[in-house]
Structure formats: C-alpha cells, structure tokens
Amino acid sequence: MNTTPAPQPQHRPDQGVDIRDMIVVHTALLREFRLAPDAVRRATPGSRALVRDVTAHLRLLCALMHHHHTGEDELLWPVLGPRLTDAERTLLEVAEAQHAGIDQSLHRVDQALTAWTAGPAEAEAAELVDALGQLHVLLREHLEAEERHLLPLAAAHLTEEEWHRIGEAGAAGVPKRDLLLVFGMFAYEGDPEVLAQMLQAAPPPARVLVPRLAPRVYARHAARIHGNRRP
Length: 231
Known about the structure:
Number of helices: 8
Number of strands: 0
Largest sheet: none
Shape: globular
Order of helices and strands: HHHHHHHH
Structural class: mainly alpha
Radius of gyration: 18 Å
Helix content: over 70%
C-alpha cells in the first residue's frame, strides 16, 4: 500500500521546458495498470455490479493510454524528430515501435475485457489478467525509456507553446464526467507544484476546488475498485 507521494524531480529554468506534467501522467498510468490485474481478481467472485465498475475503470484507463500516445504521435514526435541528431532519432524510432507494441497489447486487453464482461468466468478472467500484466510490462519499459531519453530532449528542443499544446490535447481528451477522477489519479502521487501548473489554464474556481475534490473522488473510486482508499 502506498502512503506517501513518490518524490518528483525538481525543475530548473536552465533545463528548458518543464516536462514534469508528463511524468505525473506516466506515474498514474503505471500505478493503475499495475493494480489492474488484482482489481479483476477481486471482481471475479463478486457481484455483477463490481464487474461493471471494474470494466468501466479499465476502459477509462485504456482510453487515457491510447489518447496519451496519440497526442505524442501527432504533436510530440513530428515536432521533435527533425530537431534531433541521427543517434537521437534512433531513440525516437524505438519509442515509436514501442507505441505499436503497446497498441497491440491494448487491443488484446480490449478483446479480453469484452469477453470477461460478457461472462466473468475463470478462463476469461485469467486471459484478462494475463493481458493486463503483459501491457504493464510493455508500458513500464516504454515509459521508463521515454523519461530517461526522450523527455530531456523534448525539454531542450520544444518551446513552451509546443509543449503546452500536448497537455491541452490530453486534457481535452478526458470526458468531462471523469475529469475529477482523472485529476485525482494524478494527484495521488503527483507533485503539488506540478499539479497546480496543470490547472493554470482552468477558471479560478476550478483551480481552488479541483485540488480539494479530486483526491476524495479518487479515494472513493479506489476503495470500490481496489478495495483500498490508498492502494
């Protein structure tokens, strides 16, 4: 069980664009996909209502992951690639290949989730748990490499406007009904300074209310899905 926020790297102006908001997103996605197999195991012997809730949770995670990578494919890699050396572009090509593998893994999860939702029997649950486990392994490898190699290059070569465009596209892809929940996922381990920056473009009331409400929304959600308000 996690009880304290993970330490976040500090940003200095001489490091270029502040890319820590993407690390906050990565941390939340990795945590939730790591916890996902146990959520399925909890729901399998339980009620149809819990199966329904876990299914909605997993579909939200997969949609967030797909939208996150689509944003990189459309707004990050095409802008960053031409500004890199040949050696650096090789790292970008590796990341793009990893995106393709993760897309295939997401498709497998989607198929397994559909089968499990239709009839959450032991075989369907086992396939879904295995698919989620494979996805988490691929995702962890990709995000760790991206944070180590590509985000520092993005910080060095992108403008503030170009970087903010990626964040704005990501926020626009979250359904309004899920905004508090998703921000609560980010806030669970996110740096408060970075979280405040992520809300800078929001109306003043939202900048005050969201940091107060979102963690409570996520805690209730986590209790339902993971059996623990602090998973």
